[in-house]
């Protein structure tokens, strides 16, 4: 976000935080959105990362995670955002800068994702945040849940990659053109500035 003041970046991240908390609240009310809402919140964090920078993205993640845990009735989705989905866009960018092999990056992200699921299940088992634990399910259902959640990780990673490509392409070009247009706007004609236009020249008919 070139030529944008820190105050505008903070306002932008504040709106994203409000939207993220609203999504987490909806995820707490509607069980079908328990893990979909944190994914969409993670996309908001990526928007802040691309447009405002890493510091603002981390601030957005921290504020959204804290408010989500404090305000949500069913905190499973908020925990998923805090433990994995919220900071994964920054972690993914970190891996892209240091690990060239994409399969290895996916493997590291998958390990982190499954560790986050295990941590959430343990927290639910200890009843610190209320709700049910996946570990209490039967082995067959537990394997099915693991398969579906790992599929969710690949979908989330794919969405982050596509959105990052959009920000690096048409969206970035649009912002650059907008900034250039604002900086190189031609000066308005003199009559727009309150000045009268010069009188037309007339030929001298005197002999």
Task: Provide a quick synopsis of the model.
This protein is mainly α. 71% of the residues lie in helices and 0% in strands. Helix 1 (6-29) packs antiparallel against helix 2 and helix 1 (6-29) runs parallel beside helix 3.
Question: Which structural traits does this protein have?
Answer:
207 residues; mainly alpha; 0% strand
Describe the structure.
The protein is an all-alpha fold. It has one domain. Helices cover 71% and strands 0% of the residues. The chain contains seven helices and no strands. The longest helix has 45 residues, at 139-183. The model is unreliable at 184-197 (pLDDT under 50).
Sheet with the most strands?
Answer: none
Distance between the termini: 67 Å
Number of strands: 0
Bulk shape: globular
Number of helices: 7
Q: Spell the H/E element sequence.
A: HHHHHHH
Mean pLDDT: 79
Q: Uncertain spans, ≥5 residues at pLDDT below 50?
A: 184-197
- Strand percentage, roughly? under 5%
Number of domains: 1
Give a topology summary.
Elements: H1 6-29, H2 36-51, H3 54-71, H4 76-85, H5 88-98, H6 102-125, H7 139-183
Helix pairs in contact: 1-2, 1-3, 2-3, 2-4, 2-7, 3-4, 4-6, 6-7
């Amino acid at each position: 976000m070139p030529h944008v003041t820190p105050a505008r970046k903070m306002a932008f991240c504040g709106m994203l935080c409000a939207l993220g908390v609203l999504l987490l609240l909806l995820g707490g009310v509607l069980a079908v959105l328990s893990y979909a809402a944190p994914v969409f919140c993670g996309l908001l964090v990526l928007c802040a990362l691309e447009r405002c920078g890493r510091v603002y993205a981390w601030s957005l993640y921290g504020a959204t995670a804290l408010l989500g845990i404090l305000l949500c009735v069913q905190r499973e989705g908020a925990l998923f955002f805090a433990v994995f989905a919220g900071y994964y866009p920054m972690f993914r960018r970190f891996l892209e800068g240091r690990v060239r092999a994409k399969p290895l990056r996916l493997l590291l992200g998958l390990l982190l994702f499954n560790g986050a699921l295990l941590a959430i299940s343990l927290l639910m088992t200890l009843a610190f945040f209320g709700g049910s634990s996946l570990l209490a399910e039967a082995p067959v259902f537990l394997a099915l849940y693991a398969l579906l959640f790992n599929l969710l990780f690949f979908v989330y990673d794919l969405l982050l990659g596509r959105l990052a490509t959009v920000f690096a392409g048409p969206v970035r070009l649009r912002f650059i053109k907008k900034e250039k247009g604002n900086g190189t706007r031609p000066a308005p004609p003199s009559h727009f500035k309150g000045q009268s236009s010069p009188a037309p020249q007339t030929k001298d008919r005197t002999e």
